[in-house]
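User: Predict the complex.
Assistant: Input components as received:
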Amino acid sequence: MFNEFALEHAWLIPLLPAISFVIIGMVTRSYGKLSAAIAVSMSTISFLLAVGVTLAVVAGNITVDAPFVQKLSWFHIGSVNISMGVLIDPLTAMMLMVVTTVSMLVQIYSCGYMEGDPGYGRFFAFLSLFAGSMLGLVLAVNFLQMYFFWELVGLCSYLLIGFYYYKISAREAAKKAFMTTRVGDFGLLLGILLLQLTFGTLDFMELQQLVPIYVMHGGAGFLTIIALLLFVGPIGKSGQFPLHVWLPDAMEGPTPVSALIHAATMVVAGVYLVGRAFFLFSQLPAVMTVIAWLGGFTAIFAASIAITQRPIKRILAYSTISQLGYMMLALGVGSLTSSFFHLMTHAFFKAMLFLSAGAVMHAMAEEADIFKMGGLRKKMPVTFAAMTIGVLAISGIPPFAGFFSKDEILAAAAQVSPALYILATITAFMTAFYMARLLFVAFMGQPANQEAYDHAHEVGWFMRVPLIVLSVLSVVSGIWAHMAGFDDWVRFGVPAHEGMNLMIAGTSTLLAVIALALAWKVYVAKSWNADALAEKWGVLYQLSFHKFYIDEIYAALIKFFVDGIAKVLYWIDVHIVDGIVNALGGLVRAVSEMLSPAENGQVQSYAGVYLFGVIVLLAYGVYYASKLMAMLGGAF
Amino acid sequence: MNFAVISTEIFILCLGLFAIVMDLVLPAKESHKSIGAVLIFALTGWFLYMFTLYQGPLNPMEPEAMAVIADKFFYQGMYFVDNYALFFKQMFILATVFTMLFASDYVQSVLRYKGEFYALLLMALLGMCVLASATDFLTMFIGLELMTISFYILTGARMSSKDSSEAAVKYLIIGSVSTATMLYGISLVYGATGSIQFFEVCRNPHLFFPLGIAGITMVLIGFFFKLSIIPFHMWAPDVYQGAPTPITAMLAMGSKAAGIAAFMRALYVAFPMLGMYWLPLLAVLCAICMIFGNIMAMKQKDVKRMLAYSSIAQAGYMMVGIIAADTAGMKATMFYAVLYVFANVGAFAVLAVVEAQKGSTTHRMMNGLAQSAPVLAAVMTISLLSMAGIPPTAGFAGKLYLFTAVVDQGYLWLAFVGFVMSMISVYYYLLVAKAMYLGKWDGSKLNISGTTRAAVVLSVLATILIGVWPEKLAELTNLAANTFLH
């Protein structure tokens, strides 16, 4: 009963948070607690509706092959008809669950975390707008609707990264995020426009029918270009190399924002887009190869940076980039299932890791450097427990969630390309190492800063409950989904029924354990000196610590090209454009000056000018008349 | 003969005579404002009544329609009152009413002969009405002379001012030259075709002979003089500057519009066959007017003189519609003439106040007007912006119609010249605004009488109303243009 209702009214899921945004933004902004109550209750209802939708999908015969679609005409220009609506299949249902769960928990967490902030109401307004936009994106029936919400989540990200707008670094980070992702969005828009030109429709269901026919008849050449352009959008939004630079800086936003947007939901929009348009990408092997390798490279690249970073959120940010690379890799090797499985587990444990990091920073007076923490496990047992679960989950230790999803990705990669498999396995090893490093340095050992340590305390219930809920999810979501047949549910084409490959699972688990042990040796037992190691691996350490100088390279490129071109254009503007304009003005004035003496007040000269005019006109008249006569040839 | 056809002219003539009689009857010490008040009421009433005279579109194929059309002729086809004529006459009456409204203080304080001012203004108005209806060259010439001679006298009405007398004499001399040219042209046309009636001239093939073309050229020159088209414009700055300000206003809006009315009728009725001859000529002169009128206006220190040059440019803009030579162009020209009336009333009413109370109208006198008389400064600014064609004033709508019409006929370059020169014109129009708003205020206050206030407020309201909602006026001009000669 409720399921039916939820399914029929799925459009309410994004609408409710949007309404909450409007109410908070227009009316209750200055009443922080009331705004928070509105936002949380709206997202709770959204969550319940999402549960209803999911149950309906499970119970009813809604599969990826037979989705539930509701749409109405949005606008039409000429012969182009664009509709807006909801498309619900298992993919959507899963995303709805992930987004509503995480966003509800993060909002509850924020009630405690943002306590006392002057922008309390504003924060909840933005969070609500984000939730609405993201849910709208997930439910989109066509590329344009998706692009619309895609841009909206980009806007929310901008607003929330720059939430502490009085901090220069926050403003800069917000700008950087917006502009970098815009680069990607431009490609996406071009791709969408080309799709419309080629197929005359942007509707997912229609395209799904049309694309295979097109490929069969016309080949894949042009479609490859379209797909690559489309993929530029996810590169920007999901922080893939080389557009990943904005994501670490995005940590300037409040920590709940990092958890919600820059770890669990928005950044996976790119993965979702590729998944949603998998009917297109899967037809194009060349594009799939690009996606797989770019994802794999991003995964290992970001992991190698994360190893040397010191701020807690920055480590998590690079870990996010790395895990997103994993998801892309999975898509690239054709395993939609494993990619989305990992998307879901990652959303839970990464959100929890971020929220734990937030709790730590909250306790330590906004201290971010892990090497200035230490020994926190005694002061913050709940957070420590949550963090430990998160680290085990992301490292892929059974039976935690990450183990199952990561194992599926590795298995899928191994089937397609051994090279990719090795790449992914090394990444898994590195991941386990740097996550363990984070955990051990921050929570074990002796306090590095005694004063801050004395002030540290366990967080309040608003923040504790979401941590606990997410911990539970991080433990059970993997095995539960694995048992419940996630493979049958979220899939593309025929379900790939594979048992667990014990060889692969065993290898990765073994490597993860070794990595954990290694980290223990270095950071807890101090058998090896970390600084000495850094010294020894000097060049590599510096490269990693400075994030391979990507930011610096970009800055130099921008300085050279953009600033250089700007200088040239400025010179042209000042000296040539303005020069022409000023010269024209001067010319007009000079002519005016020159003509003034003609008007000398002498009536005889006026008459002279008049007669001159008469003679000129008469001359013209006579000339015309003679020509006319010649033409008519004396016909009169 | 159907005298009802010329009821408007008869009414105006009676009013003129009434003004002269009243002037004699009233004691010399008595204020003569009452004459103005009576005339304003009478003319306004007639103006409103004239709306009932418009004739809906007719189908010339039907016999009754022919009868209706024939009924609008007076005296053997010499005089014709179609919607087009009605429209222009209404415009002239409107201009006269507004001029009288804001002139009443000026007349009372500056002029020596007050009753004559009104009587002569009405005679000029009568001449304009004749021009709008004339369908033969002689009637047209009489209308032209009636109007022009009245203006000669009115230009010199400021007996105490040397400038005024000088302007009157210059106007008379150059005006006589032009009259002679035109009359000579008419005689040549008559010599070539044997007729002075528009309808017959147009049918006569002898018009194509050099004799006919020379005649046409000289007739055109007579009109060019009236419209102050370069190079027949030399009189305009001196006369505009020297004449009493209300008369300058009438010269700019009334005399020019009357010239346009007769000019269009002569071109489209008498010389349509020779379009190939006069269209390029007009286009070139029109461009010259728009370019040099605007350029020369830039350096002027006196606002009245500046407006004289600007009116040369404005004549160029109105010619744009004539060059389009279709109903859209006619409509655009008529539309523009009306909004130009309102813009001129606004600008010159302010200048009349400044001139009457400060003695002259240089830029220096405009300094700080925003403080001494904020209403006047606002009115001046809006009126000038309308002349420059800035939205949402009427000038924008007017220029839009003009340029659309001419571009449709293929004269893209002309529209381009018009656009560029409109931009340049903003410079000198805004110089005045700059003086009024940023200039140093000398602390003096200006008195504004109720009638002046009424004139400026009404004109500005009309300027903005037409700019925002041009529909009604556009419909009326459409009707007048579509039923031309019906």
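The CA atoms of residues 386 and 468 of chain A lie 7 Å apart.
Let me know if you want any component modeled separately.
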